[in-house]
């Protein structure tokens, strides 16, 4: 009985996998277009997932996070490979800066994809 309980708890804890640095959209009010700098953004949100500099000196910081949540059927031996699926939610915030390193714009993108149907669904 105890072994079964430990197995169930382990499966529940292993059920969700997340990566990246998720930015809470409520915190975006802490940065101001035309005033905040690259250093301000990194200071508030940490290191970005990627950083790109264009030939004209403009820069883009990308913060990307993903959460993969398998459904219960995925954990059933043999059945899981046929009937199981995983919802992958991607959250990204893209900050754009001028050549002086001042914030010009930012955009937030959220999407959820189910790997079984390969169709995009509304984020949860």
Secondary structure layout plus pairing:
Layout: H1 2-14, E1 17-20, H2 38-45, E2 50-53, E3 59-70, H3 79-83, E4 86-97, E5 103-114, E6 120-121
Antiparallel strand pairs: 1-3, 2-3, 3-4, 4-5, 5-6
Question: What is the compact description of this entry?
Answer:
With 124 residues, the chain is of the alpha+beta class. Helices cover 21% and strands 37% of the residues. Strand 4 and strand 5 form a beta hairpin.
Computed CA radius of gyration, to the nearest angstrom: 19 Å
Outline type: elongated
Which structural class should the secondary elements be placed in?
Answer: alpha+beta
Mean pLDDT: 80
The number of domains is 1
**Oligomer category:** single chain
Q: Helix fraction?
A: 10-25%
Which sheet architecture does the biggest sheet show? 6 strands, antiparallel
How large a portion of the residues is in β-strands, by DSSP E? 35-45%
The overall strand count is 6
Poorly predicted regions are none
CATH architecture descriptor text: 2-Layer Sandwich
Which fold name corresponds to the CATH topology? Answer: Beta-lactamase Inhibitory Protein, Chain:B, domain 1
**Number of helices, counting only DSSP H or I runs of 4 residues or more:** 3
Distance between the termini: 35 Å
What is the N-to-C order of secondary-structure elements (H for helix, E for strand)? HEHEEHEEE
CATH class: Alpha Beta
């Amino acid at each position: 009985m105890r072994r079964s309980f430990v197995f169930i708890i382990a499966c529940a804890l292993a059920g969700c996998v997340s990566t990246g640095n998720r930015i809470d959209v409520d915190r975006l009010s802490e940065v101001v277009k035309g005033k905040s700098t690259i250093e301000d953004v990194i200071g508030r949100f940490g290191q970005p997932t990627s950083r790109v500099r264009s030939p004209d000196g403009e820069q883009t910081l990308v913060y990307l996070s993903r959460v993969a949540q398998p459904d219960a059927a995925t954990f059933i031996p043999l059945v899981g490979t046929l009937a199981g699926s995983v919802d992958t939610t991607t959250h990204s915030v893209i900050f754009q800066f001028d050549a002086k390193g001042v914030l010009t714009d930012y955009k937030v993108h959220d999407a959820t994809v189910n790997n079984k149907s390969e169709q995009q669904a509304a984020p949860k």
